[in-house]
User: Fold this.
Amino acid sequence: MQNGTGIGKTSGWLALSPLIVFLLVYLVSSLCAGDFYKVPVASAFLIASVYAIMMTRGRMDSRIAIFSNGAGHPNVLMMLWIFILAGAFAGTAKEIGAIDATVSLTLMILPGKLLLSGLFLASCFVSMSVGTSVGTIVALVPIASGIASETGVSVAMMTAVIVGGAFFGDNLSFISDTTIAATRSQGCSMADKFKANIWLAAPAALITAGIYLFLGWGIQSVPDHGDLSIIRLIPYLSVMLMALSGVNVMVTLTAGLLLNALIGICGGSLGWLGFLSAVGSGIAGMGDLIIVTMLAGGMLGMIRHNGGIDFLISSLSSRIRGKRGAEFSIAAMVSLANFCTANNTIAIITTGDIARDISRRYALDPRKTASILDTFSCIVQGLIPYGAQMLMASGLAGVSAISITACLYYPFILLAIACASIIFRLPRRYS
Assistant:
């Protein structure tokens, strides 16, 4: 079957095969090398992307156009702008000493034993207020990386602390785009969805905080924090305050970048050429992240065009048995859609109508259905190494996404609690 552009759609597992190729190339190569950190994600995506173009029917120029539209999707381009601004902000903040000053303040406030759990809870609070995991990661990961170098804690562990807390707020916040998408698709209020969702997220967060408290019990505070310059704290404090006030993340990063330039040039710690050099270095540090994002966007666009996501949804929705099966089917649909799109909001929008039909057919509570959509999409988004949040965190921290996942406890604990809530029909009020 072909459309007007000369592109024919595939069906079934063939439509999903580019994602399978990516996983096989990445996993098999990593196993053969004996090290998951040696295989660049961009290389695996390039091979899978070439395969996706070759296996799609139609004229070559039309196939490439489909791939390019996916790579240049407005959501992808928005992420690229955020990556560029985040790199420029982080590079200039480091040059003027803003990161060092913020790290010193944090070490003065938090005792060593409470460092990991304290940062996790702070990340939960910030993400809950901001409503975006990306904004939280941009604001806190550079600080966490600096703290790691001062305390001897691994950078991957410190970054995972922030990322886990970031997804807590992304899942629960009233201003999160996932919350808005889930509640609108299921026809329930955000307050009702929050009440159903908090029974899953709060226990997971408390257990995670307890784990980080145990792991951080042996951390000793650094006795000498260096000179604490209040002026150098302004850029990061401003970024956090603007984020908490709901200011657009791009506006926030741009304002932070201008503050870095003002403080650096006026204070004499950074000249004009030095500022330009820091901006260039920060953007260059995001180069791999930008390439991976575009390759992933193009490949996932081909999967979507070939009907891969439609195949997943129809296959899962046709095998439902009872209320538990209905809830697990909704969880599986949104998880697989997220796996294929690397965007939790898009995954919820894609599966929302089907989930609402299933909910009505099996008399499910729409509040719990909305909670399932949001929770499982955030779980998958927090675990896939090619998701925007993990790519952003790994780029800012300078470590691989896989190394962060190894220290990331919150999504795994949330997954266990969410599955248990379906199996044991909890909480009873929403089941």
The CA atoms of residues 9 and 306 lie 5 Å apart. The two ends are 43 Å apart (CA to CA). The chain is about 75% helix and 0% strand. The first helix runs from residue 13 to 33.
